[in-house]
Design brief:
It is found in: Membrane. It holds the Pfam family Voltage_CLC. GO terms for molecular function: chloride transmembrane transporter activity. The structure is a single chain. The protein is mainly α and 408 residues long. It has two domains: 2-201, Orthogonal Bundle (Clc chloride channel); 219-404, Clc chloride channel. The chain has 18 helices and two strands. The chain has a two-stranded parallel ribbon. Helix 2 runs parallel beside helix 10 (185-201), helix 11 crosses helix 16 and helix 16 runs parallel beside helix 18.
Length: 408
């Protein structure tokens, strides 16, 4: 079935490709705008929380009850979140309700304002997918639903992180491991670059840190990179495994979603306050910044960020996983740099990309993230580490509906 789709989309006429290119431009502009509003408000809310953590962190459980109430009463299918995006991609669902956009934005803002440890990429990808998929009703060509969905996913990721090439590869890779839907490349590429440019022009910040040193690829360094890739891969695998396990366990212990999110919200509030008053709340951008600026990174930062993010998301709070994965990887990289006698920022960058790759079961996207965020001078190192991180994990993923392509 997958092979048939690839052949169908590769036979699209030039006129259809021209129309798709125009739609990519429109979708990219719209998604970039929505990403900017979402991202800038999220940054402002984070600053408000960080300024007075005692005003907000104790009430995380109240925010959780509000989130559950909203999804229970008006959320409908949008409560499935990324799961719904995957189901539409596999043609198990036909539509993504437009209400998903305000629902996921508001509930993610609540999670971050009150200190939950979560990301934002899941929101951006859902926003992009919803906007783009709405347009497919106006067209009639093979595999139109999948093409528009992938276009929106790429635009959503690119608008938020401003890594357009990596965003295209992420959307291509993430639905089905081992299958790239290359027929969607034209609208995906245009939408991705347009969304990235739009959000940048409108003032949404991008994290980037050009590495000062280029590490020579000697046999010793190659072995070090191999080992680092395996370690980072295990960290990403651990995150994905614990997230799935914790969701299942918490659902069994607290089948009532209100009780689950309230009790776990109380526990999280206590932990966040005791652990440096919110150091592990929110996206984890504080840990990322410290990793690359010489700030204080504790040996246990990566593990506490991992565990608290898992508990937050498993409890039912909203957000994503990718930015916390970046934080986990970069802070773990700082710890490992001294053991391998390699530059700290260099190993932090390797952890940044490869923990994400392992947890999402993506291979090409992390390599391009390395180039777009840290510069291309160490591209061979990104390639080697991402390769060995990727082979560690093919079973567990933060996206539970992700499929593996089986070829005869």
């Amino acid at each position: 079935m997958v092979e048939k789709r690839i052949k169908e989309t590769s036979d699209l006429s030039y006129l259809t490709l021209l129309v798709l290119a125009l739609m990519g431009l429109i979708i990219g502009g719209l998604v970039g705008l929505v990403d900017t509003v979402f991202g800038r408000v999220l940054i402002d809310l984070t600053a408000i929380r960080d300024k007075n953590p005692w005003y907000w962190l104790p009430f995380l459980s109240v925010a959780g009850l509000t989130i559950v109430y909203l999804y229970q009463t008006i959320g409908a299918k949008s409560a499935k979140g990324m799961g719904l995006v995957f189901q539409v991609g596999f043609e198990e669902e036909d539509t993504i309700p437009k209400r998903l956009i305000p629902m996921v934005i508001v509930t993610t803002w609540l999670t971050h304002l009150f200190g939950g440890s979560a990301g934002r990429e899941g929101v951006a990808v859902q926003l992009g997918a919803t906007v783009a998929h709405w347009f497919n009703r106006f067209f009639h060509f093979p595999n139109k639903s999948r093409i528009f969905l992938l276009t929106g996913m790429a635009a959503g990721f690119a608008g938020l992180y401003q890594t357009p090439m990596a965003s295209v590869l992420f959307a291509l890779e993430v639905l089905v491991i081992g299958n790239l839907e290359l027929g969607a490349l034209v609208p995906m590429t245009i939408a991705s670059f347009t969304a990235s440019l739009t959000s940048h022009t409108l003032g949404l910040e991008k994290f980037s840190h050009t590495l000062a040193r280029t590490v020579s690829l000697t046999p010793t360094v190659f072995i070090q990179l191999l080992i680092l890739g395996l370690v980072f891969g295990l960290a990403g695998n651990l995150f994905a495994y614990l997230l799935a396990w914790c969701k299942q366990l918490q659902a069994q212990l607290f089948p009532n979603p209100y009780r689950r999110i309230f009790l776990l919200g109380l526990l999280l509030s206590l932990l966040f306050l005791l652990l440096y008053q919110g150091r592990y709340s929110g996206l984890g951008t504080n840990l990322i910044a410290a990793s690359f600026s010489g700030g204080k990174i504790y040996a246990y930062d990566w593990l506490l960020k991992l565990l608290l993010t898992v508990i937050t998301l498993a409890a039912g709070f909203q957000g994503g996983e990718v930015t916390p994965l970046f934080a986990i990887g970069s802070s773990l990289g700082v710890l490992l740099a001294s053991l391998f006698h390699l530059p700290i920022a260099f190993v932090a960058a390797l952890g940044y990309i490869s923990v994400f790759g392992s947890a999402t079961n993506t291979y090409l996207a992390p390599i391009l993230i390395g180039g777009e965020v840290f510069g291309y001078q160490n591209l061979p190192a990104y390639f080697i580490v991402s390769t060995f991180a990727y082979i560690v994990n093919r079973k567990h993923s933060i996206y539970t509906l992700q499929k593996i392509s089986v070829r005869s």
